[in-house]
Amino acid sequence: MTPQEIKDLKESYRLVFNTQDGKRVLADLQSRCNVGRSTWSDKPNETFFLEGQRTAVLWIMDMLRDDDHRERPQHTEE
Hints:
By secondary structure, the protein is mostly helical.
């Protein structure tokens, strides 16, 4: 994807999830998909499944983050 396509896609995520319903759905996904909780299980396949759910919600949350206002590391030449 081009930088512009990524920016447009992030805007689409914001349009969906920044509504009252979108915020409610995102909160539900965070609760159901182990965001903020351990995904460890003594059954490896269950751990993989739970981590997959969690990763999908973290992806949505990352797409909603406002990257334009984050400080970028400054490269210094030595």
